[in-house]
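Quick one, tokens below. Sequence please?
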């Protein structure tokens, strides 16, 4: 495995980051920042009050509350959530312009299940200073508060957060992010493809970065891409988030955000964030008690090649030519993936059974009718209910009511809409295997 350019970790375009620790590419980063600052001046605020409220009001605005545990360079608490969101017009096009520090206000009351999950970690003995978490059910835990972990030394001692994050990823710090979201998204043509990449692909309404399905790691060269919610399941905090080079982000659903936006699953979920193409990302519910359903399914490796399998039950011996079209058939791989259920060792040295659904290549878009709660290949739909086209966060519920992230988790692997010129995100054009070493994506 090899390193992808560090810049891919950073936001590009109009997002500004105060970011360090990026080795060789730090000079590129500062060029990027100075270029962008001058362009921002061209943007005018709109005076049309009627158009301002809709998108702007979805953001969790705060200029008063500061984080208790995550500190800025002066040692003061970072201002949490989003500092401003306003409609601006740039060359005749309306955008919502968002400013955030990237640090959320997550105050979580620990449940029995959460404490149990912490103490049941396979490496609890070394993950925690005492071998178990220092919090109990009923305790209120603030974002970044020490719950007994042996955290990484990266940022954690300087800018706070030691003890809140499991060993592996470093701690997040203030990001000073600016982002533009186009108010009226434009769909890509059928012939145009914009893959989400290993940088921010959107923002949650509390200013936290949205990352895609990947952690940037593969099992073999250019094949068998890890799914972050699987491979990094022991590398996230109690709010299912972690930092890459200081940038806090989510790859998946978190009940912490559900609580902030007041989603109780008793109606269509509210907006949790916005994708870089401007489309909103709603929570997991399509209606009361009904989860939105991903249109992606796991392959059956034992099935015939005509049906998207490899004729090798329990073995990953071929990949799909086109994960959006089973009829395109399968192709050989240089190196087989691990057998279904075989143990693999993650970056944080946790051993996880690579069940079917552990890798990106385990999935295909089933192309079923997009109706009701069923979503399209981008993990979105327009049901004609007035919301317009929107993405959903996807979960599945098992028999005992446990909710698990369901691929592609948030927006699909490809954006539905075009990325505007001033977007912080870029289409991913890389085909290389990426990254090695923490912080993972
Ligand atoms: Zn919906
Ligand atoms: Zn990540």
């Amino acid at each position: 495995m090899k390193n992808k350019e560090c810049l891919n970790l950073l936001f590009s375009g109009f997002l500004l980051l105060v970011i360090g620790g990026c080795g060789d590419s730090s000079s590129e980063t500062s060029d990027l920042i100075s270029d962008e600052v001058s362009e921002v001046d061209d943007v005018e605020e709109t005076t049309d009050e009627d158009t301002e409220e809709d998108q702007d009001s979805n953001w969790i605005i705060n200029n008063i509350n500061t984080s208790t545990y995550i500190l800025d360079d002066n040692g003061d608490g970072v201002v949490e959530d989003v500092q401003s969101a306003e409609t601006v017009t740039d060359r005749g096009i309306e955008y919502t312009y968002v400013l955030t520090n990237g640090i959320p206000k997550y105050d979580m009351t620990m449940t029995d299940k959460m404490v149990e999950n912490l103490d049941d970690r396979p490496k609890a003995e070394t993950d925690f200073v005492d071998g178990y978490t220092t919090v109990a059910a009923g305790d209120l835990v603030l974002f970044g508060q020490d719950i007994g972990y042996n955290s990484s030394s990266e940022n954690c001692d300087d800018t706070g957060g030691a003890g809140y994050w499991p060993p592996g990823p470093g701690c997040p710090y203030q990001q000073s992010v600016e982002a533009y979201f186009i108010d009226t998204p434009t769909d890509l043509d059928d012939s145009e493809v914009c893959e989400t990449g290993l940088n921010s692909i959107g923002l949650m309404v509390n200013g936290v970065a949205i990352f895609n399905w990947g952690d940037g790691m593969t099992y073999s060269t250019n094949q068998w891409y890890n799914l972050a919610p699987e491979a990094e399941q022991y590398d996230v905090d109690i709010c299912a988030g972690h930092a890459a080079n200081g940038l806090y982000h989510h790859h998946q659903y978190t009940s912490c955000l559900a609580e902030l936006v007041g989603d109780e699953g008793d109606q269509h979920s509210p907006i949790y964030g916005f994708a870089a193409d401007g489309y909103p990302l709603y929570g997991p519910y399509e209606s009361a008690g009904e989860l939105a359903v991903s249109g992606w399914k796991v392959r059956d490796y034992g099935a015939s090649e005509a049906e998207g399998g490899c004729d090798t039950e329990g073995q990953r011996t071929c990949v799909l030519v086109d994960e959006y079209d089973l009829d395109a058939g399968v192709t050989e791989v240089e190196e087989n993936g691990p057998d279904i259920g075989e143990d693999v060792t993650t970056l944080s040295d946790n051993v996880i059974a690579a069940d079917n659904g552990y890798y990106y290549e385990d999935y295909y878009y089933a192309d079923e009718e997009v109706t009701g709660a069923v979503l399209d290949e981008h993990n979105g739909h327009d049901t004609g209910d007035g919301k317009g086209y929107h993405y959903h966060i996807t979960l599945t519920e098992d028999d005992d009511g446990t909710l698990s992230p369901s691929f592609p988790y948030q927006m699909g692997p490809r954006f539905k809409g075009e990325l505007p010129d001033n977007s912080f995100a870029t289409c991913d054009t890389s085909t290389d295997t990426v990254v090695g070493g923490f912080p993972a994506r």
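The helical segments are 26-40, 53-56, 112-119, 124-127, 156-159, 228-231, 255-260. The chain has seven helices and 28 strands.
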